[in-house]
Design brief:
507 residues, alpha+beta, Beta Polymerase, domain 2, Poly(a)-polymerase, middle domain, two-stranded antiparallel ribbon, 11 helices, 29% helix, globular, innate immunity
């Protein structure tokens, strides 16, 4: 990108050239800023050439009065302007003198931005040699607003009811058989119960119903937790003495319940039972280092992935590290928070990583059941998004951001360290800071999405995304994700939002 020369241009416009957002061929105009910016003007006909393969990213204009470096963003209730057509009619109609048109300068290419090859671009409204300009009326019809573009993306992500029904029937059949077999065999997992979690059951699954998360929970009474390395998220589990002995006793290492030992046995039993399932093509995928799940692959004939996660259920008080977490008092209410904290909490065999080694004895706190409740009861008004209630765009924003991250990860393996849980955590914080349903009006979808992107990028820049339930656990710490990966992601996000999200059109 750097070092390429641009040919001088000569303007034929009789009007001042208006600033325009960079577009690629057949791409839409970048979303205007919510801070009062207007869309590109039509009619300026300057003849200019741009070198092939050079992305001309427009720098984003900061909202008037905005303070740099703020760490949180408020979505204000959007009200129509008080100035009407009558006020405009009172203004004098004396034409102002127009200065001669000046060729528009190219913005400098950010040397720190990711180098992305692009095809030749052409400004909307510019007239090429030998190409007659389109009439104004047809241009107006072809123009697509940012809201319409995002709604088209959401429509593409909507799951088809028939596909959902078929996939759910297959998954429920396989998981039901597997759970029944494990409950009927003599083993340490005889008391397992099913707990459905994950994006499908939270109703925020996108694209296709091909991934499911299921918890097999096992109640473990009388346990004692010891926080690991002051993380607040990882714990060592000790079993208190039970008369007659504890069935989990042979998973102990120096009185500590070993997560890796227990997960290994859990996987072994699942593989044995899966081999007995003859009416479906089911297999168990290879173990992934550090993963708490045993992944089944069902061919139906399309592949469906099912993560089965072993979870220890404790009905005791939530750990001290969660005391200031779940900050929903001003959003869902104090009573709801108290009720949720009286529910059980769970521990999954996700090992803490110290330097490059996983600590096999450690368990991680899980609140996926609480997250599912929040996502399905997200409005400050109880009827929000119900059939007779007012709709909001909270879940739509979450789906759009999940899709954006998913598409970026397809193109850049550097982003594999990020996952949808980062997006979910960030949006929980955003909903907390903007609790009113009117702040998530579907009529302002593009503005709400842009506000969330601003918030998420700020989290990446400051390397700070605190766990929603464990305030001292930073999901964007240097120990978990390196600075280069975070910088690469926020630059990619900024590029996409400044250019109208061209990646949404690629797949």
């Amino acid at each position: 990108m750097e070092g390429q020369c641009r040919r001088p241009t000569a303007s034929r416009a009789k009007k001042p050239a208006a600033k325009r957002a960079t577009t690629e061929p057949n791409r839409t105009v970048a979303a205007p800023s919510h801070a009062g910016g207007c869309g590109p003007q039509r009619g300026a006909r300057s003849r200019r050439a741009e070198p092939d393969g050079v992305p001309t990213e427009q720098p984003r204009a900061q909202a008037p009065g905005a303070r740099p470096g703020r760490t949180s963003v408020r979505i204000k209730d959007l009200q129509p302007s008080a100035t009407g057509a009558a006020g405009d009619a009172e203004q004098p109609t004396v034409p102002e003198p127009r200065p001669p048109a000046i060729p528009e300068a190219q913005p400098p290419v950010d040397p720190g931005a990711p180098d992305v090859a692009r095809g030749p671009s052409r400004r909307r409204g510019a007239r090429s040699v030998g190409q007659p300009g389109a009439p104004r009326g047809s241009r107006r019809k072809q123009e697509e607003t940012p809201d319409k573009k995002l709604k088209k993306v959401l429509e593409k992500l909507r799951l088809k009811r028939k596909e959902i029904s078929v996939a759910a029937e297959v998954v429920n059949g396989v998981v039901g058989q597997l759970l029944s077999r494990m409950q009927n065999r003599e083993s340490e997992f005889k008391g397992l119960q099913q707990l459905n979690t994950g994006s499908y059951y939270e109703r925020v699954k996108i694209s296709a119903p091909n991934e499911f998360d299921v918890m097999f929970k096992l109640e473990v009474p009388r346990i004692q937790l010891q926080e690991f390395c002051d993380t607040g998220a990882f714990y060592l589990v000790k079993l208190r003495r039970i008369s007659g002995g504890n069935p989990l006793g042979h998973f102990l290492e120096d009185e500590i319940l070993s997560a890796s030992k227990m997960l290994s046995k859990f996987r072994e039993i699942i593989k044995e039972e899966v081999e007995k399932i003859k009416d479906r093509d089911v297999s168990v995928e290879e173990e992934k280092p550090g993963s708490p799940a045993v992944t089944l692959l069902i061919r139906n004939p399309e592949e469906i992935s099912v993560d089965i996660i072993l979870a220890l259920e404790s009905k005791g008080s939530w750990p001290v590290s969660t005391k200031e977490g779940l900050p929903i008092k001003n959003w869902l209410g104090t009573k709801v928070r108290t009720k949720l904290r009286r529910e059980p909490f769970y521990l999954v065999p996700k090992n803490a990583k110290v330097e490059n080694c996983f600590q096999g004895q450690t368990w991680r706190l899980s609140f996926s059941h609480t997250e599912k409740y929040i996502l399905n009861n997200h409005g400050i008004e109880k009827t929000c998004c119900e059939s007779a209630g007012v709709k909001c765009c909270r879940k739509d924003i979450l789906k759009l951001m999940k899709y954006l991250l998913e598409q970026l990860k397809k193109e850049h393996e550097e982003l594999d360290v990020f996952c949808s849980y980062h997006v979910k955590t960030a949006i929980f914080h955003m909903w907390t800071e903007n609790p009113q349903d009117s702040q998530w009006d579907p009529k302002h979808l593009s503005v709400c999405f842009d506000e969330f992107l601003t918030f998420f990028v700020e989290c990446l820049r400051t390397e700070k995304l605190m766990h929603y339930f464990i305030p001292k656990f930073n999901l964007f710490s240097q120990e978990l994700i390196d600075q280069n990966s975070k910088e690469f992601l926020w630059k990619r996000i900024e590029y996409e939002r400044n250019n109208g999200f061209p990646i949404f059109n690629k797949f």
